[in-house]
Write a structure and sequence with these properties.
This protein has eleven helices and 13 strands. It is α+β, with helices and mostly antiparallel strands. α1 packs across α11. It starts with 17 loop residues before the first strand and ends with a helix.
Length: 312
């Protein structure tokens, strides 16, 4: 397994033209996206790239119609930033952009359909129940068996995720489901190590094992707490090779490209289990892809450059 990234394909910042760093928007992940976007913008500028931040898709469309940008670094988390809408718009306008295309973005924004693809390819993922509006959460939990997670099928950053250890814990999830318009996923809880693998240009980066101070890796542990441990590489020897291979297979099976992050759990009995794919991963000070890239000698600014050069 190589411990190095290939040489840069481009060394001239002028080759990118003027770059829009798309961030913010109006999704539940706005705050995280703004943090990521500010960091990416500063990193690109530090390497001489002519880049400006743009908040949300309507502002981006106005700027593109005015001819202000030649390409887009998409760091708009969730919603239209990751569900294929933005990607279809940019493809129609002939504007290069970072990350996956329409199919990979739309598919992986839907956790249920992603799992269906993985299962069709024989890839391991926890048992689940699809919960349309009005579904009986208690009956679904009885079929799966406790403990379970309940989460929106189309949100990220642990938004609206409920850890349900017993029937008594279902009440908050039931209340959330009653007010939520979208589809929910109920998934068997995996007891074991929480891991993630960044993907960069067809290469699986070293895995990261996440060890939160609390009982699980929730929004607070991801973006606020400073006591979460990140062990990289997360596994050793053949186990590390296996998780990187699985992550690449899962990424490609879901029609993803460019860069992203594959979240994996290692069950004590069933081994590696795929959880989800993020096609516009966080780039904050707590984010995981930069930590993994650093293990291969790639600092934050170089990582942003490598993501952007995939648009050439």
């Amino acid at each position: 397994m190589s411990g190095r990234l290939p040489a840069l394909r481009c060394t001239d910042a002028a080759a990118f033209g003027r770059v829009a760093v798309l961030m913010g928007g109006d999704t539940s992940e706005r705050a995280v996206s703004l943090d990521s976007g500010r960091n990416v913008l500063a990193a690109l500028r530090s390497r001489g790239v002519d880049a400006d931040g743009v908040d949300g898709v309507p502002a981006l469309l106005d700027a593109l119609q005015a001819g202000r940008f030649q390409r887009v670094f998409n760091i708009l988390h969730g919603g239209v930033g990751e569900n294929g809408v933005l990607q279809g718009l940019l493809q129609a306008l002939g504007v290069p952009f970072t990350g996956s295309g329409v199919l990979g973005s739309a598919l992986t924004m839907d956790k249920i359909r992603t799992k269906q693809v993985w299962l069709s390819e024989g890839l391991p993922t926890p048992r689940y129940e699809r919960l349309p509006k009005g579904a009986d959460l208690r009956a679904a939990a009885d079929r799966l068996g406790y403990p379970v997670f309940v989460k929106p099928s189309g949100e990220g950053s642990s938004v609206g995720v409920f850890r349900v250890l017993s029937e008594a814990d279902l009440v908050p999830a039931i209340d959330f489901a009653a007010a939520y318009d979208g589809e929910l996923l109920m998934e068997q809880m995996v007891r074991g190590d929480e891991l993630t693998v960044g993907i960069l240009g067809g290469i699986a980066l070293p895995s990261i094992r996440i060890v939160p101070a609390g009982e699980w890796y929730d929004y607070h542990a991801k973006y606020i707490a400073d006591d979460t441990q990140y062990l990289c590489p997360g596994l050793e020897g053949d186990d590390e090779a296996d998780i990187r291979d699985l992550a690449l297979r899962a990424f490609h099976a879901a029609a993803c490209s460019g860069w992203g992050r594959v979240d994996v759990m290692r069950d004590r009995e069933r081994g590696l289990q795929l959880i989800e794919i993020n096609t516009a991963p966080g780039m904050t000070g707590h984010s995981l892809v930069p930590k993994a890239a650093a293990q291969l000698g790639c600092d934050y600014a170089e990582l942003c450059w490598r993501v952007l050069e995939q648009t050439l």
